[in-house]
UniProtKB/TrEMBL annotation:
Gene3D superfamilies: 3.90.950.10
Name listed for the protein in its UniProt record: dITP/XTP pyrophosphatase
Catalytic activity, reaction form: XTP + H2O = XMP + diphosphate + H(+); ITP + H2O = IMP + diphosphate + H(+); dITP + H2O = dIMP + diphosphate + H(+)
Species assigned in the record: Companilactobacillus nuruki
GO molecular function: dITP diphosphatase activity; ITP diphosphatase activity; metal ion binding; nucleotide binding; ribonucleoside triphosphate phosphatase activity; XTP diphosphatase activity
Enzyme class: hydrolase
Residues that coordinate or bind substrate: 8-13, 71, 153-156, 176, 181-182
Superkingdom, natural source: Bacteria
Keyword match Hydrolase: yes
Pfam families: Ham1p_like
Active site residues of this protein: 70
Note accompanying the cofactor annotation: Binds 1 Mg(2+) ion per subunit.
Necessary cofactors: Mg(2+)
């Protein structure tokens, strides 16, 4: 059976990928299946650089086709921050602390100026392909005044989608995948990867 690895240790991302890439003719693994895999230094300056670092570190270790996601939240009133630093905005990788810091940075900023977007860059690397397949997705929303919803991960409880009158954390995985940055990027990947890959 063919195998593909998703180079993530984030259980929320893993769940979203698995939801789309299920029931196909390959086995999908993530780094959660390899808990001893060392931390990958994400010291690039763009989402694409960081996704490339992750995809190649994992592809080289396992010699298997590997997809990495680097993603983050860009808030207009904060000049695009936290951006590539989204995971460790408040210091260590702690969703509650990150959300608290975001709310405090936006204290007093009115609704119409709380515009933001989630961005996801996916890099698909394969030992038998010379060039990576790279796609991007985004979704626009507003940063809410307080967290709502228990689903999802990261900044989802604060990411409000006006068209749905819900935060991202109030959506099921399927609903999130239909509208999210990662969902859009995965959709693009799905259209291209089978023609691209040399198994
Ligand atoms: O690097 P991996 O192992 O994939 O997991 P990570 O959580 O460290 O992932 P990133 O380095 O790409 O950092 C992205 C951060 O941006 C935030 N983020 C990205 N996508 C999100 C989403 O769909 N919902 C909520 N927050 C998200 C969240 O805080 C993530 O930790
Ligand atoms: Mg990371």
């Amino acid at each position: 059976m063919k195998e593909i690895i998703i180079a993530t240790k984030n259980p929320g991302k893993a769940r979203e990928f698995k939801r789309v890439f299920n029931d196909q003719d390959f086995i999908l693994k993530t780094l959660l299946d390899f808990p001893d895999f060392p931390e990958i230094l994400e010291n690039g300056t763009t989402f694409e650089e960081n996704a490339t670092l992750k995809a190649h570190a994992v592809m080289e270790r396992f010699s298997l086709p590997t997809i990495a996601d680097d993603s983050g939240l860009q808030v207009d009133a904060l000049y695009g921050q936290p951006g590539i630093y989204s995971a460790r905005y408040a210091g260590d990788h702690n969703d509650a602390a990150n959300n608290a810091k975001l709310l405090s940075e936006l204290g007093g900023v009115p609704r119409e100026k709380r515009t933001a977007r989630f961005v996801s860059t996916l890099v698909f690397a394969n030992p038998k392909n010379e060039h990576d397949l790279i796609v991007e997705g985004e979704v626009k929303g507003l940063i809410a005044d307080f967290p709502e919803g228990d689903d999802g991960f990261g900044y989802d409880p604060l990411f409000y989608i006006p068209e749905l009158d819900k935060t991202m954390a109030q959506l099921s995985v399927d609903q999130k995948n239909q509208i999210s940055h990662r969902g859009h990027a995965i959709e693009k990947l799905e259209k291209q990867w089978q023609d691209w890959i040399n198994w």
